[in-house]
Every structure is written in C-alpha cells, then in structure tokens.
C-alpha cells in the first residue's frame, strides 16, 4: 500500500542516501555492517536511523537480520512499474501491477464519460475536495501522498457510474495497484516534482470538464492522461 514518510527530514533523507550508496553494487545477501556501525557512519540519532531503515526496507534496498552475525544486508532488487515519469516500487511481481495499469487505462475513458453523464452536485463537490488534497501534497513535496490522493480521486470518479459491474471491476483493479505499491521514485525523463505539477493540472482540468459536462474535452484529457 502507498505509504507516507513520517519525519521525512533532511537527516532521514541523508541517512537513506548513505545506506543506499553502501548497498549499491552489492549482491543480494551481502552484509553492509552492523546496525550500530552504519548508524554511526550516517551520523544521525537512533530514531532518525530507524526511520531511514524503514524507508530503505520499503524500497527493497536492504533487509535487517537480528542476532550474532546480523545487521544490514543488501536486498534483492525491488520490482518496479513505470507510471508516467515516475517509478512505483512494488512488493509484488511488476507484471501484476503493469497488467492492472493497462486494464485501468482502457477503462478510464468510459469511467470519465459516465461521470460526465451522471455526476451530481455532491459528486463534483467531493471531486474538488480531493483535488485540494492533491494540491496539499504538491505543496508539501510529498509524492507518496500525492499518489494516494490521486488514486482516491480516480476511485471517487469511478463511484459515480451507475454501472455496478464497471465500477466494481475498476475499483478492484485500483486495489491491486494500491496494495502492491510501497513508494514513488523519480523516473529518468522528468524530475518528479515537475511531473507531479503537470499531473495536478491535468486532473484539475479533468474535474472541470466533468463538471461542465463536456464529453469532448473530457475524452481529450483522458487521452492525455493515459499517455502519462
């Protein structure tokens, strides 16, 4: 499930970067060192280091082993799925989420068209509240929270349709994506902050088109959305 980082201060980020650099190039199962030794190398408090370890484990960079001979060990590579100019770190085989994303993308134009036809004033008001959540995540520079708010918006749009089968299939697909995504990482093409800014504006435009009951504009925006 998508998670947000608690206490994501610069010291946590620095510790994550140091440990990730130590693990880079190691074979899965190779030992980085004891927990105490690596914490000392990072130069951070125990609480900060534990938060860094939590993030590193979520991202599949390290594993922890207790007892004699224990410590920090390089983990097997985390499965990834591409989402636009970002990467989703997964806890399942990447093909599972990639397949779910492909089906979701094929359903979204129909989901959006249904929202244009059937969206009530209450529906539209709640969509704008979810846009506000996305804005707040952008302002906080929190890509995990942005993705969580984004997917809440998509689920709420899907809930508008009176077609129960369409709604349930779509929501089940979103559940697969949500359950197996543990982090959002920068992609190689566009800085993550820029990508999130672009996606926020696109979703603002989608909600505005749904509110205006503009089928042509909604369809155009959904095509742009599914190009990522």
From TrEMBL:
Q: Which Gene3D superfamilies match?
A: GntR ligand-binding domain-like, Winged helix-like DNA-binding domain superfamily/Winged helix DNA-binding domain
Q: Does the keyword Nucleotide-binding apply?
A: no
InterPro entries named in the record: GntR_C, TF_FadR/GntR_C, WH-like_DNA-bd_sf, WH_DNA-bd_sf
Q: Which keywords does the record carry?
A: DNA-binding, Transcription, Transcription regulation
Gene Ontology molecular function: any one: DNA binding
The domain of life is Bacteria
Tell me the SUPFAM superfamilies matching this sequence: GntR ligand-binding domain-like, Winged helix' DNA-binding domain
Q: Name one Pfam family in it.
A: FCD
Any idea where the GntR C-terminal domain is? 99-228
Instruction: Name the chain's protein.
Output: FadR family transcriptional regulator
Q: What is the lineage of its organism?
A: Bacteria, Bacillati, Actinomycetota, Actinomycetes, Micrococcales
């Amino acid at each position: 499930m998508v998670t947000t980082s608690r206490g994501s201060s610069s010291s946590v980020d620095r510790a994550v970067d140091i440990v990730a650099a130590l693990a880079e190039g190691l074979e899965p199962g190779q030992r980085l060192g004891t927990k105490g030794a690596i914490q000392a190398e990072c130069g951070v408090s125990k609480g900060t280091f534990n938060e860094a370890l939590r993030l590193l484990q979520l991202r599949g960079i390290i594993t922890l082993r207790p007892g004699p001979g224990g410590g920090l060990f390089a983990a097997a590579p985390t499965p990834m799925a591409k989402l636009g100019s970002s990467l989703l770190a997964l806890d399942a085989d990447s093909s599972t989420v990639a397949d779910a994303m492909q089906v979701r993308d094929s359903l979204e134009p129909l989901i959006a068209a249904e929202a244009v036809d059937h969206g009530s004033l209450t529906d539209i008001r709640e969509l704008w509240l979810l846009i506000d959540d996305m804005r707040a995540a952008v302002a906080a520079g929190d890509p995990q929270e942005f993705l969580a708010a984004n997917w809440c918006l998509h689920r709420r749009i899907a809930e508008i349709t009176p077609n129960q089968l369409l709604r349930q299939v779509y929501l089940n697909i979103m559940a697969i994506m949500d359950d197996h995504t543990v982090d959002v990482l920068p992609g190689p093409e566009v800085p993550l902050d820029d990508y999130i800014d672009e996606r926020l504006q696109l979703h603002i435009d989608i909600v505005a088109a749904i509110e205006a009951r503009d089928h042509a504009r909604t369809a155009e925006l959904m095509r742009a959305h599914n190009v990522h």
